[in-house]
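Hey all, quick one. A colleague (J.T.) asked me to put the flavin-adenine dinucleotide job into the tracker so the inputs and the structure tokens live in one place instead of scattered across chat threads. No bug as far as I know, just bookkeeping. Sequence used:
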Amino acid sequence: MTPVRDSDRRVAVLGAGLAGLRAATELNRLGYAVRVYEARTEVGGRARGEWCAGHWMDSAWPVLGGRDIVLAGWARDVGLSDLLSPLRPVQTMLLRRGETTSVEGLNLRGAARIPGPRFWERAKLLRWGRLMGRYASRLDASCPERAADLDYRSIRDHVSLYFGRGALEFWLAPEIQGVYGDSVEDLSRVAMLIHAKSIGIGERRPGLPGLPRRPLLELAQSAAEGLEIRRGTAVARVDELPAGGFNVETIDADGIRDPEPFEAVVVALGPGEASRVTSSLLTPAERDFFRDVREQPVVNLSIALEGVHAGLPQEIRIPQREGSAISSIVIEPGQPGGRAPEGKSQLVVRARDAFADRWRDIAGDVLSKNVLSSLELAMPGIGERVLTTHLGRGSQPFFEVGSYRRLANFQRVQLDRRDLGRKLYWAGDYLSGPSFESAARSGLRAAQALVTDLADV
Ligand SMILES: Cc1cc2nc3c(=O)[nH]c(=O)nc-3n(C[C@H](O)[C@H](O)[C@H](O)COP(=O)(O)OP(=O)(O)OC[C@H]3O[C@@H](n4cnc5c(N)ncnc54)[C@H](O)[C@@H]3O)c2cc1C
């Protein structure tokens, strides 16, 4: 009998966002015959943006963590080492009552100096090391469900109990808001603990935040170059074939349906779409899981600015009690070959979650004007320098208390199905965390599970 070579094993990856592309690059590297289906004509999913007058206008918040090792490793693998290593350093600032101060919330000395918390709350920061030591072994950014047994308390309750409310409002909520948004009170403490560990809060060498040197989308585009991708082809449904494997039915831009058989499928779509196209394959427990995934709206406005900002790029955080519709602003001075041209600057403004939620049905131009007027209040005179804007609007998963227990249950079902021979895998930020790094991690994890299963056959 001729042995099955990996290149004979046809694998479909559904979705060319970062999760799907990371899975597909890994499978391709290991010699599998991978085909990616992407409904849009462009790859990158929610990492996309556009060039306007020499400025890269992000749809997403651009600040990355200095320990985003999966993204950095992937960039190296596709020949883009200089994109993320090193990141362009970002100075963190706090805007209160019209004054900005530099803050360093990643180390405990710096955290104790952040204005806002009461004296006794600052003293309690000494507890941080002991607490993190207690939980660290369960905090794994690639397998977040390992911390499911800690998932019975919100970040509000956890931080209030150990450090006081001030520590949440002025220190930890701002530290995690770039990824989880600013209305984090009901977020599971597991999300905060995993994030704190992954950026190294309180450690001797935390992962300092920074900006990619060029658009992150370049990573997706470079990864895509080596892959077989059907663009503009939406997956309509996936069904099991009687002889094993799956039939993936797609619809192209002309409405033509095309069925294709595959031995294994990685579903790297958002949770709603993932459950819709695989509905004939889901167990009741999986259906329940997808039904309960919570998402929240996100609004970012990228702004190209006339004139240059001196110094380092800055992330300016605005505490909730300032009453602004904006939670954070990134100011990025231009540089040759960078995301903004030399002699100009750009801003990315993240709206407060409550604002994004309240205005979720409003037209984009009205929303942009609202964000711009809030920006003018926070940074008087900035309006005169605006060259053009780009609105990034979308949704991201929210990990409230209970999410990680549901995730653990979902992953148990996956082990069970895989034992029974089902070769269907899931990837996406709703399984790991609402960030580029987490999306890439989930793609890698799905690819590794698939490789393990096919190696056993
Ligand atoms: C406004 C906004 C701001 C954000 N800011 C940040 C940030 O600052 N930092 C950060 O790290 N993360 C941020 N994120 C989150 C980050 O963008 C996501 O976590 C990550 O990009 C998700 O990747 P994914 O591959 O899981 O999903 P997606 O990027 O959504 O990829 C899914 C892909 O599947 C395709 N697709 C959908 N349906 C079908 C179908 N039927 N057939 C074929 N293809 C289909 C889609 O077109 C898409 O390309 C932000 C997200 C949003 C919306």
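Adding what we noticed when we looked at it: The pocket of flavin-adenine dinucleotide is lined by residues 14-20, 37-40, 45-47, 59-61, 178-179, 234-235, 268-270, 273, 277, 298, 300, 392, 394-396, 428-429, 434-436, 439 (CB under 6 Å). The first helix runs from residue 18 to 29.
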